Amino acid sequence: MNATARPLDVPAMVKEAALTAFVVLMLTVILVGFELRDVPGAMALYTRIPDVVACVALAFAARIALVLLREGYRGAVIVGAAIVGLLLLIGLLPETLFGTEAAARTARRFMPFEAPVVQWCLFSVTVFLGLRAAIGRRRVRVAEIKEREAAADRMGARVQSIARYAGPILGFAAVAMPVAFRNDQQVMSVAILVMTYIMLGWGLNIVVGLAGLLDLGYVAFYAVGAYTFALLATTPDIQLSFWLSLPLAGLLAALVGVLLGFPVLRLRGDYLAIVTLGFGEIIRVVIQNWYGFTNGANGISGIPRPTLFGLSWDEEAAEGQIPFHKWVSDNLFPIDYTPTHEKIYLYYIILALALIVNWFALRARQMPIGRAWEALREDEIACRSLGINPTNTKLTAFGVGAMFGGFAGAFFSTSQGFVSPESFVFIESAIILAIVVLGGFGSQLGVVLAALLLIGLPEAFREVKDFRMLAFGLAMVGIMLWRPAGLLAHREPTVRLKPAAAGKAK
After folding, report:
1. Burial 22-50 (b: 16+ CB within 10 A, else e)
2. In this predicted model, what pLDDT tens digit does every residue of 137-181 receive, in sequence order?
3. Are 134 and 78 in contact (CB under 8 A)?
4. What is the set of domains in the chain, with CATH numbers?
5. Helix (H, G, I), strand (E, B) or coil at 42
6. What are the b/e assignments for 236-271, b being 16+ CB within 10 Å?
7. Which of 61, 101, 442, 456 has the greatest number of C-beta atoms within 10 Å?
8. How far is the C-alpha of 92 from the C-alpha of 84, rounded, in Å?
9. Residue 340's CB: how many other CB atoms inside 10 A?
């Protein structure tokens, strides 16, 4: 206890911790408590009550620690974190500490959870709480919260100013990444997935970040672009290539975006979000039930991959085509066949599309249409008073954002080779919106960082798939508490009024 500590209200502290534990119990009973496993000839339901009990107990203890920190009892938190951290370290490194397999089995028996990744994360949280208590942070007041937010905004401004110089470096790193991982197909697959969500985030950032229109149905345009290319490429009498179908997919998605914009011209905020959410579900239900056109829930398979000047990515090309590795070996330098070549080609396609979206968004902010979007975001009434037509401004935002979503959908269709309605559920819209919100409204670099955190980082935790969505929700709650405006939320004016030159008449 330090000099700034207040008298501790133990019943209130226990009540607060019990409420937190109850909320965690309600979440983990469904997400963690039950698991379906394959057994010979059937599916079996298994319960994991010890994991649920561990989650509840940890939530209770963590809340107690946070209350003690808030009230100034740092010594108790340091002692508790040291004891728990030591016990966790014994369970994590039993063979190193004891040297016998029997001792290792005994130590692991008392460890919460089975996955080592979760155990190490728990150890890291314990160390973080101990360090936070040791640093001696005092109780934060409202004025200090405002000062912290102002400091975070200044940091965002500095990062945004550095981004213009770091952009070429990051771009070069993105271009050179396939060279470093040219033989790792899994890394390239994850990179393609991350770049796809970066492109989707930049497209939605135009609608939400620049124009301020909360869109919860962005996955509808993603689906329109995907099914447009799938139908154009697999219909026997059409069979257009990817490069010819790509602009058509974007234009059709833009048309759908404009059609969505008309009914919601008078809506704002939550009402706009509800309507766009319904629109996204309508598109998915139509795709799922229109069997004669979209093949319904069975989806569309056999979607061709994009070619490079007619070269094939297969080891043995079809009649009339030349394998890529054979052409390179005959004309440039010897190269062996590997499936990673196609992944690298797909990565460069989505990288080029994403950079086009980024370039357009940066240029649009300097143009009248971009300034009109920002004016609409800040105050629609003031926007009208300035002579800006809100109708045209909203429609262009919906149309442009939908067009980029259609481009991403067409790429998703060709990269997967199969599309179905299950790929365009509401959770996809939620993830894309979470990327924009987490990165900061209007921040291009923030979208990149958020996509890496929400899409790329969870791939390292794939072995603990049962805890991924729970961790995703906790991370979003944490960001909303500690950085409500996003990681790099800073609105830099696109136009500044320069002061009058010295010597001019006032």
Report:
1. eebbebbeebbbeeeeeeeeeeeeeebee
2. 544 444 555 666 666 666 666 666 666 666 777 788 888 888 888
3. yes
4. 2-135 (no CATH), 155-482 (1.10.3470)
5. strand
6. eeeebebeebbebbbbbbbebbbebbeebeebeeee
7. 442
8. 12
9. 19
Lowest mean pLDDT among 226-235, 298-307, 321-330, 369-378: 321-330
Measure the CA–CA gap between 308 and 314, rounded to whole angstroms: 12
How far is residue 506's CA from residue 497's CA, in Å, rounded to a whole number?
16
pTM: 0.73
Q: Is the alpha carbon torsion for 463, 469, 474, 476 positive or negative?
A: positive
Q: For residue 480, what are the contacts with CB-CB under 8 A and spacing of at least 6?
A: none
Quote the tokens at residue 211. Answer: 């124009």
Among residues 230, 231, 219, 211, which one has the least CA distance to residue 256?
A: 219
- Cα separation, 410 vs 392, in Å, equals 27
Q: In 3-state terms, what secondary structure has residue 396?
A: helix
> Nearest to residue 357, comparing CAs of 410, 415, 407?
407
User: CA-CA distance, 319 to 310, in Å (whole number)?
Assistant: 12
Are 457 and 121 within 8 A, CB to CB? no
Tally of CB atoms within 10 A around 410:
31
Task: Write the CA distances from 266 to 263, 379, 391, integer angstroms.
Answer: 8, 14, 9
